[in-house]
Design a protein that fits this description.
The chain is α/β, with parallel strands linked by helices. It is built from nine helices and 21 strands. Helix 1 packs parallel to helix 9 and helix 4 runs antiparallel to helix 5. The chain binds flavin-adenine dinucleotide (FAD).
């Protein structure tokens, strides 16, 4: 047996573990949150279930649909209502529904990672935040923020968003000229910040769309969707809007207290939807995503340390801030780890 430590249990980390499920690589996954699936996150509150990070998995090519169906059709949701657009003046227009499939599950988007991990023997340790990495001989050891050690491992796969991965590389003990180059390349990936608000109403909304996307990127709202279009997410007779504020607005108001900022957001939504009743949700929630979406990929430097068993995966390695991109990058990097371990560890 050979061993791999995967840091992060998002789509990329789950994809990597899944790729190695039929090999003799023993995968240990360390995840700082209490649940899996990272930015493709689901929360439950007041009888509702909502995807407050990514909204759904797109299918740009048939392989994603095939894989998702292989994970089981039970509870699989393909949102049928379309995505419409709006501009900076709030003018709503039909169209722009580029996605053939908009997949989630009745239990929420976190099912993606849950179902992938369920098909592996990976040891997934949640509530474990990695603090430092050590190269000892030709193996890697990991220390978490409680001071507990994990490993040693034959290989390491880092999947947190690039700025968090760069921070880990700062706390890495490895006397090798590639380390500063890696740190610089990973740390230079630019990100967009998004603050998501969840607005609940005790009435149904009758609109022909599932979501609205701001196409000129000049409105304070970037995206607005109706979570009740996903079966089992919102009880009948109620509505839950997912409102993702624009990166500029989100950055300026990232630390504003929820109770103070939600009024402005709800007023903006009421104006956009031309209905004053949206100004007064009966309950609300939020989530800040400081590293929501990578704005660019990373240079090939990230592959330079693979012969030392150090690998990277995630949407930022793929160069596209999408669940399917992270998933397939995780699968591909998992396969590379498998090839590396099969040829270099005896
Ligand atoms: C608001 C928002 C809306 C989006 N909408 C969509 C959409 O509709 N469709 C779509 O396809 N994509 C969407 N995306 C993008 C999509 O969510 C991401 O591209 C994808 O989930 C990235 O997966 P990942 O595995 O690369 O990273 P992540 O999901 O970020 O996974 C990395 C994991 O590493 C963990 N971690 C970080 N640091 C440590 C540490 N030190 N120790 C241990 N664990 C650590 C994190 O907790 C996380 O679970 C959206 C993203 C956001 C934020």
């Amino acid at each position: 047996m050979t061993s791999l430590c995967v840091v992060g249990a998002g789509a990329a980390g789950a994809g990597a573990a899944y790729a190695l499920r039929n090999t003799d690589v023993e995968a240990t996954v360390l995840e700082k949150s209490r649940g899996v699936c990272g930015r493709a996150a689901t929360r439950r509150r007041h009888g509702c279930r909502y995807d407050h990070g990514a909204n759904y998995v797109k299918d740009p090519d048939e392989r994603t649909t095939r894989l998702i169906r292989e994970l089981g059709d039970d509870g699989l949701v393909d949102v049928e209502e379309p995505v419409w657009t709006f501009d900076r003046r709030g003018r709503i227009t039909e169209g722009d529904d580029r996605d053939d499939h908009k997949f989630t599950w009745t239990e929420g988007l976190t099912q993606l990672a849950k179902r992938l991990f369920a098909r592996t023997d990976a040891d997934v340790r949640t509530a474990t935040r990695v603090a430092a990495l050590d190269r000892e001989g030709d193996r890697w050891s990991v220390t978490d923020t409680d001071g507990d050690g994990h490993g040693p491992f034959d290989a390491l796969l880092l999947t947190p968003p690039a700025p968090q991965t760069a921070a880990l590389l700062t706390d890495t003990r490895w006397d090798d000229a590639r380390l500063p180059r890696l740190r610089e390349a990973v740390g230079s990936v630019p990100y967009r910040t998004i603050r998501s608000y969840l607005l609940h109403y005790p009435f149904e909304i009758d609109r022909p769309w599932y979501a609205l996307v701001n196409v000129d990127r000049e409105h304070d709202v970037g995206w607005l969707s109706r979570e009740e279009c996903k079966p089992s997410h919102v009880p009948d007779g109620e509505s839950l809007l997912v409102v993702q504020m624009s990166p500029a607005w989100s950055t300026a108001h990232y630390d504003d207290p929820l109770d103070e900022s939600v009024g402005t957001v709800a007023e903006t939504v009421a104006t956009l939807l031309d209905d004053p009743s949206f100004a007064e949700p009966d309950w609300y929630d939020d989530q800040g995503w400081r590293y929501a979406l990578p704005d660019d990929g990373v240079s090939d430097v990230v592959h330079e340390a693979e012969d030392a068993g150090l690998f990277f995966a995630g949407d930022w390695v793929a160069g596209e801030g999408r669940v399917h991109a992270a998933l397939w990058n995780g699968i591909e990097q998992g396969e590379r780890v498998g090839e590396h371990l099969a040829t270099s560890v005896f």
